[in-house]
Amino acid sequence: MMSIEGFFDIALIIALVALATGQILSMVRLVIGPTTGDRILALDTMVINALGLIIVLGIHQGVKVYFEVALLVAMLGFVSTVALARFLLRGDIIE
Amino acid sequence: MSLLLVVALPFFGALLPGVMNSAGRAACAGVTFTVSLIAFIGLLTNLPTVLAGEVVTARVEWIPALGLNFTLMLDGLGFFFAFLILGIGLLIITYGRHYLSRDDNMGEFFTYLLLFQGAMVGIVLSDNVLLLLVFWELTSLSSFLLIGYWKHLPEGRQGARMALAVTGMGGLAMIGGMLILGQIVGSYDLSVILQNRALIQADPLYVPALILILLGCFTKSAQFPFHFWLPHAMAAPTPVSAYLHSATMVKAGIFLMARMWPVLSGTPEWFVIVTTAGLITMVLGAVIALFKHDLKALLAFSTVSHLGLITMLLGTGTAFGAMAAVFHILNHATFKAALFMSAGIVDHEAHTRDIRRLGGLRRLMPVTFGIATLAALSMAGIPFLNGFLSKEMMLEEATHTMLFGSEWLVPVLATVGSLFSAAYCFRFIGHTFLGPVRDDYPHKPHDPGAGMWVPPAILVTLVVVIGVAPFLVQDFVFLVAKAVIGDVAMLEVKYIKIWHGLVPALYMSIIAVVGGLALMLIYKPLLKVWETTPRPEAKVIFEAIVEAAARMAQSIIHPLHNGSFTRYAMIGLVAMIAAGYHAWTTGTVAEPVRELQAAGAVPIAGWGMLVAATAGLVLLHRNRLLALILIGIVGLMVSIGFVYLSAPDLAMTQFTVEVVTIILLLLALNFLPNQTPVESTVLRRIRDAAVAVAGGLATFALAYHYMLREAVTTPISEFHLANSYKGGGGTNVVNVILVDFRGFDTYGEIIVLGIAALLIYALTESLLNGPVRRRLLNRVPDQPRAGDMHPMMMVVLTRVIMPVVLLVGFYIFLRGHNEPGGGFIAGLIVSIAVVMQYMASGFAWTSARLRYPYHGVIGAGVLVAGFTGIGSWFVAQPFLTSAFTYVRIPPFDKFELATAALFDLGVFLAVVGAVMLSLESFSRLARRADMPDAEFPMDIDPSRSDPPPVQTAELKEGN
Fold first, then answer.
1. What residue spans of B52-153 are helical by DSSP H?
2. Are B411 and B391 in contact (CB under 8 A)?
3. Mean per-residue pLDDT, A8-23
4. What ipTM goes with this model?
5. Strand partners, B897
6. What is the tens place of the pLDDT at every residue in B855-875?
């Protein structure tokens, strides 16, 4: 019978591996495109995966500060996606 | 009044005219006058002590380790010069108030003038040669600003540049000379140097020191062959010419020769160099002056000539010569300043300074005529005016001077100089004021208001009083002369007399005056001869030399410094690799002490993505947008890497910087085509790739090497870790390093950041005010535009997020000292929150709601940080010493109050200001003529009853 901690560790590792795989797949999507819209979407997905990675790392290492980094990434990652999307649609991001 | 205050007053006072500028011209001039007057009175309070033969001193330690201290002394010589500078300064300020027109920025003018005045007083009162050099350079700088005051005149700018180049070069030479003197004596204190005549003159380095110092003096005092800058400096407004280029600044070189007279003079080298230069300058200046048609040019060359006369007197090395020099400095200052002011009046009233277009002003401007004539006759050496007395002394001294083994060389040349001097004085009077009244003046001349003629009238009164009753000033002149001579020689003259009997000097005077009149009679044919003789033109030669120097510098620098970043990166990288290789092959290498650790799957995946993104960037970099997205990935992966390696601070900074960079680059991409053209050859790319790979491998090798070994010396990080809480009161070492241990660096960095942002702003402004403006406004986007300008969804979302982001920023700022965060990250976060509003509702709508300009925010940040640093002075600590304490306000926990937090606030403000100013500048460039200024935050708003604006043209394009 496996202990709770051991189970928890395995769950975390699975999560990490899943997120890393997701990251790699998004990256592939980013490279093959084919449109710029796909690429921006891929970048946005990568930001969300990164968010997951940071949180899981935080749980894994037991450090609270990582959640704040995650908070920042969540808030600001949105801004860069919006900026890129605006650029694609309008050319000028502040008009 | 303390000497320190006398010197400091003009500098502090220089702030006032600018502030008073909006209060009107009278207030502006009034405050300048008051400042000078207080300094002048302060100087006079020291008069009794000086008259008693004592030396007043004041001392403040500045950088004792370098021998550079703020020491001042006031003896007869210093008092004499300071009196001239401040006294004539008062007259010039009065005159300048009425001379400048309404279009001139008076505050700027008087600010420069006071700066100059302070620097000049500093020179004459310094008791430390290094301090003297500081003030010396300050006069060069402020005179540069004053000569170029009328920025719209190319002559003014060129003249200012020439004056700065010549006097600045001389100043550099003088620094060398002064340092040698200091080394010989072992002290930079002037009073010590002055007592070591024998030591200095016996030293083998005496001649180099002498030549270097004389270079400084000759350039400043416009001695041959450096005399050419002075006439070109006459493009300055006349008050400046009268003040700097006749009464004060050009006398600085002479002052220094007089100051150094006790230790430097008396040797054959001094005698030959100084006397010859003086003599040539005197004759040359006088001859050229006679043929100048511009009133101010005539006066400029006459000043050159008189400076030569004084230099020659100092060069003779006798006590009588020194006394005559002092007396002539006084006399020249009075009549020449009066003459310049008269020339300015003529220019001001008749709108021309060309003698050929003047004449007959005697009847139209009787007051000016009286003043100018008396002053000019004094300069010509007519009895009962002060110029006569000192000129007689000069001729007297000349008859006793033997140069190059010839008894008659100096007297003859001195007489020739005086003759031409008399001639141009007569021309000045005759061709400007005498003769018939003309009817073709550019402007109907008449006497000016009292404000303009009273200052020169006061000076002319002095000219007459000294000329008639020299005994009034003789004690003072002797006192000053004794201060010049020191205890090197004895002054044997007891009185200054008008009548010496039938001595050779009198005959020489008579020859000069009669000869001068005779020259005037044959002036026309003489002028023809002069105009047909070829002469070297100093300005052309000077510009050719500058051009050649610039070309040479360019040919050396250009291969290295051609503006291409690739080139710099390559040079830097190759140099570093070479240095590293050298260290590796010649140094000792320690054994590795650490084990390699195994890498997990996740780090390898992250590393692989980083490598893949970088490689993809290299492959796809010609597509600019794609390159930007890939850069975003690299940044993201690096941030995750920082988190993984337990550096959340760095991760936060990296990520926020990444977002700001993307926004900034997107704004720039708007102006660039989507694809970068291929510009480099294949060979070149292979070369660059080779260098890049070598650099990468070298970095890898270095990191690998160090990670396996202990550092050779204890890294400073251990000190930081140990002292962060104890000394800085914070547990976040990174933040404590930034705001405390290395606070001074951070202070410098925020200033640089602010300057960079202001430069971006300035560049944008100049672009928008230039010819590019039209093209920018009328540019048509190359791609169809889709959707709304300001979509509702985005507006609502950003408004909701705004307070949240601000709160997070505030939180991160506050707890920065102990946990990851701090002013820098908080600043970036807040900027992003504001930029979101710009993106959502547009530039016009957002900036209309902006309450504080970003420049102000940057300035406030730098000031807050600076004042926090200065605050520690009040508790007698060095700049930026931080203090902290723990406070407990009941329902809350104990918390810390640190001055470092205030400093961090400065950092925060500077970052917000800098980021926003640069983003705003970029988006300002993107404004187009066809873009309506949005009145509402969003284009389609269901709560508004008016019909939504239809963007037909754009929509069509989009479909």
1. 76-99, 106-125, 129-147
2. no
3. 89
4. 0.87
5. B885
6. 899 999 999 988 888 887 777
Q: What are phi and psi of B128, to 5 degrees?
A: -130, 130
| Nearest-angstrom CA–CA distance, B796 and B836 | 11
Phi-psi region of B74 (alpha: psi -120 to 50; beta: other; left: phi over 0): beta
Q: Which residue of B has its CA nearest to A63?
A: B646
B294 pairs with which residues across the strands?
B354
Q: Which amino acid is at B530?
A: W
Rounded to an integer, the average pLDDT of A6-30 is 88
pLDDT of residue B908: 92
What are the sequence ranges of the domains in chain B? Answer: 265-535, 564-582+600-709, 731-959
For residue B238, which amino acid is it?
T
Residues 6+ positions from B102 with CB-CB distance below 8 Å: B25
Best of A79, A84, A88, A89 to substitute, by most chain B Cβ atoms within 10 angstroms, is A79
Nearest partner of B285 among B378, B373, B222, judged by Cα: B222
Contact B656/A72, CB-based, under 8 Å?
A: yes
* Residues of chain B with confidence (pLDDT) below 70: 929, 946-959
User: What count of other Cβ atoms lies within 10 Å of the Cβ of residue B95?
Assistant: 27
Question: What pLDDT score does B115 carry?
Answer: 92
Q: Write phi, then psi, for B189 (nearest 5 degrees).
A: -80, 130
Question: What 3-state class would DSSP assign to B351?
Answer: coil
Nearest residue of B to residue A90 by CA position?
A: B785
Q: Which tokens is B641 given? A: 């890497």
Say if residue A74's pLDDT is above 80: yes
What pLDDT sits at residue B803?
Answer: 92
Domains of chain A: 9-90 (1.10.287)
Residue B949 touches partner A, C-beta closer than 8 Å? no
The 10 Å Cβ neighbour count of residue B721 is 11
Predicted confidence at residue B696, as pLDDT, reads 92
